[in-house]
Amino acid sequence: MGSELISLLYESHLIKEYHPIYNRSQRRKINQYGLFLHERSGYKALMIDKIKPETNAITVFSSLTEAKNTLFRITGKHKLCQKINGLYKTKNYCFQYQIKECYGACISVEPVNSYNSRVEDFLKNANLEKLTKLVELQGRNDNETGLVYIENGAYKGFGFCPKGTPIDARLSYIKAYDDNRDIQRILQNYLQRLPL
User: Fold this and answer.
1) Which of 1, 135, 149, 163 is most buried, taking the most CB atoms under 10 A from its CB?
2) pLDDT in tens, 149-181
3) Dihedral of CA 125/128/131/135: which sign?
4) What single DSSP character describes residue 88?
5) CA-CA-CA-CA torsion for 109, 113, 117, 120, nearest 10 degrees?
6) Whose CA is closest to 115, among 174, 58, 161, 75?
7) Quick one: DSSP state of residue 172?
8) Where are the alpha helices (DSSP H) in 78-178?
């Protein structure tokens, strides 16, 4: 498929279409855990919790392990505090503060506005709601480009075009695929790994 992103999107499509016996992860319709925004002493905290019908998660996960691994990655990438995000239990400062990977939100040293602005940066990238983007990736060979299209936050599909295809003609190579929570999660995880 040329790229990991297109492979994951196509795999998810095939799982939903064929319901393989031994691959249950994306056959489940219920995501059990979500990432939610809370407040701790004025600091915006990203917290993992079980999904309830009345709550609106930033993103969803099928397992607690997946949720924690993702939150650790987000916390590290955006220089957030593990204690504020509920990943490190302590009454004092977190370990990351000792090794200079946390700016001291855990002990109220870092200004709230400074910390919260980094959380907002993450939230802008995590929210696909209004994002329209044609993602260009490696193709299946050296003569083509892989494409993934998101329009107003909705996944429209993927395709491959010859290298050098004019920008205005690339959308014609997109094959439509269904959007769903698993697809949204795959796209969010991909976009969160991109450099700031």
Assistant:
1) 149
2) 998 888 999 999 999 999 999 999 999 999 887
3) positive
4) S
5) 110
6) 75
7) G
8) 95-98, 112-126
